[in-house]
Amino acid sequence: MDTHYRGRNIVFVVGCPRSGTTWVQKLLAAHAQIKTGQESDLFALYVGPQLRAWRNNLDQSENSRGGLGLACYHREMEFMDILRTYLDALLAPMVAGLNDGELFVEKSPAHALFLNEIMELLPESRIIHVLRDPRDVVASLMAASKSWGKSWAPGNAAHATMTWLSHVRSARTAAQTAPCGHFLETTYELLYSSPHEELKKMMDFLGLSWSEANLAQAIEANSAENILRTGGTPIQVRGEFGGSGGRVASEPSGFLRKARPGAWRNDLSWRDRWRIWRMARLQMGEVGYGWTTPFA
Length: 296
Hints:
CATH topology of the domain at 10-133 and 179-256: Rossmann fold
Largest sheet: 5 strands, parallel
Oligomer: single chain
Strand content: 5-15%
Number of helices: 13
Structural class: alpha/beta
CATH class of the domain at 10-133 and 179-256: Alpha Beta
Low-confidence stretches: none
């Protein structure tokens, strides 16, 4: 009998970096039945690569003198049991203390690249994919690369566009095999123009109710102006980085940039527009951002 955690009360918020995943996290976490914390990269850095390494060992066994790696020591069932035990222990600070009816929202943008692994190991978990116009994403990524995000953000339009493409393609591919009712996609633009309606959709997706007054309060508390002033819904940091009592995460200066959709028109050079159009126009059309010419 499988006794491992299957993800019944965890929700993964994913998307290309600079697509609004933090905003969605803060909005959801304003609900009394939702807990959250700083992004963990649990699957992107820890569990996902290990599962992929195991699968790659098996796939490459025919060209490796009969096989190399841990598959020389463990059977599939043994390895997966070890990996799931490891995953259970890593998830415990997030989900072990939840009461009935409560959910934990885990927001790590890079998990968009590991949704297959998430769905395999946590088949009862739910996923919210945040999609944003790549032109605004590219402009935001390049701006971050010059300041607080210089250690990770791509500094040119070509690399930034590839970042958007890889995350969107991975999430869209995984959505095709996600169990019914376990994958929801929202867009930054709809959330900006119709926050009440989009947040209600998320609540329905999660099986939670929210009064109109509390919903309006959550939206107001997490407006761009209030996030700049107060930080919006607090995100907790615990563990080694949080100390014995924990602390509230604070975003670096410049993290919240231009919240208004379409700001790319003033931020991108003609050369950058051309690069985005050349690389991403087909995918943009598929996800609702049709762009006939970069010069429009």
